Amino acid sequence: MLTLKIHQHLLECGTDEAGRGCLAGPVTAAAVILPNDFSHPWLTDSKQLSEKKRQELRPIIETEAICFGVSHVMMEEIDQLNILNASILAMHRAIEQLTQQPEFIAIDGNRFKPYGKTPYECVVKGDGKYLHIAAASILAKTYRDDFMEKIHEEFPNYYWNKNKGYPTAEHRNAIRKHGPTPFHRKSFKLLPEQLKLNF
Hints:
It is an enzyme of class 3 (hydrolase). It is found in: Cytoplasm. With 199 residues, this protein is of the alpha/beta class. It has one domain: 2-Layer Sandwich (Nucleotidyltransferase, domain 5). It is globular and about 55 Å long. The relative contact order is 0.22.
């Protein structure tokens, strides 16, 4: 059973990202503040849920949350900043979108940079421990998946509707055959034999 949040008496947001390990597309983060009486029997780490369940939970979270924010950081910024810094930037931008600024931030993972003077705590596997982080993980994942489905229409050879930009054998074979697209992260090792790729 997941706990609502770390500090029951504070206005606390949970934040998480999706897409860190992908070869293509943005890294996407969400921040969510849930009301103190929020509960839902399905809500857990997005990776434990089917796509159908995530899509059904998203409008429930958006309707019942006190506020939420979602932010994409695109490939160019990922290449400039590196993926860790880009992930943290995406979280900061998602928090900035909140209509009520949190008194405390709970982050999934073990790395973060201070967001102003707001106190925070990193929680390893936090999306399986706290409801607001789980809610953020579902928003980040579904918004990112939507983005990948959309760009799949422009570049169907890469099957982003299925692999969502992750390094599957099918995705790597498509890069080998067709080369990288503008949506690929140039700082990532797209193929094991990276030297053969000419950007």
